[in-house]
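Lecture notes, unit on protein representations.

Consider one protein chain, 141 amino acids long.
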Amino acid sequence: MSGRCLLVLLAVTFGRAQGSKEPLRDKIVARERAELDSLKTGDMTAFASFLADDAVFVDDSGPADKAEVLRHTADFRLYEYTMSDIRFVPLSAESGLIVYSIAESGTSHGKEFTAKVHVSALWTKRGGKWVCVFGQETAAR
């Protein structure tokens, strides 16, 4: 293969990888927003459908599985939220990690709250469906 052909091949391959990064990012951010929106509407069936059955979540209480998260969010409602400083790392053609900050308000177990939190979420496509397989939250200072 000539050097010129190799350069063209690399440019095309790199262009495809770069071009596919944004749509994947957009898909995953949209899934994360849909998950948060289900907490605004109180649609816990929809919320549960966004979480992989084998997912692991971590917060200041430690690790939790899907069942634990669903129990703890049963009395949780978001009123409003704003995602900011969204960062994205593609991991494959059908998975990626987003990291962002969120300012939120709502109720938790009957008490109103406002919070600022740093979040990371790992999303992947399984069986044609996007699911969150890992999530982590850290209170912002």
